[in-house]
Specification:
Layout lengths: L1 H8 L2 E6 L8 H22 L3 E9 L2 E8 L8 H5 L5 H12 L3 E6 L5 E8 L5 H4 L5
Parallel strand pairs: 1-2
Antiparallel strand pairs: 2-3, 3-5, 4-5
Helix pairs in contact: 2-4
Length: 135
Amino acid sequence: MFRDVEEVYGFRIDGELERVEDELDAVASLTLYRIVQEAVTNAVKHSGAGEAAVTLRTANGWVSATIRDEGRGFEWTKAEALDGDGRIGLTGMHERAALVGGTLTVRSAPGEGTTIRASVPVSEPDPDSARGIQR
């Protein structure tokens, strides 16, 4: 995804990604991917910056993705977004995270860039798959 964004939009993504493939089930993994995708798309379209940083880390039973740009930022509160202020992407990211038991925080202010952090709980291992049992 990062290469595509750079090729299509000329927007650079500086990624610092831990390998987390065994930490998340398929639903949580896709959820986190879609949140990162939406946050990067928002940065490309709205930040006015030419690059963003994306980090992916595992700590204390959570996998977290942080997307940070140094762009124009905006004024926003969670309550406003959930009341339908037209920021559908942010609301959708909150809803996606909540559906898998995760959280999403947004920090932004005019002229100060934007940081979005999505965290989802590490998936419990399926004891049947460890024994080779398929359902």
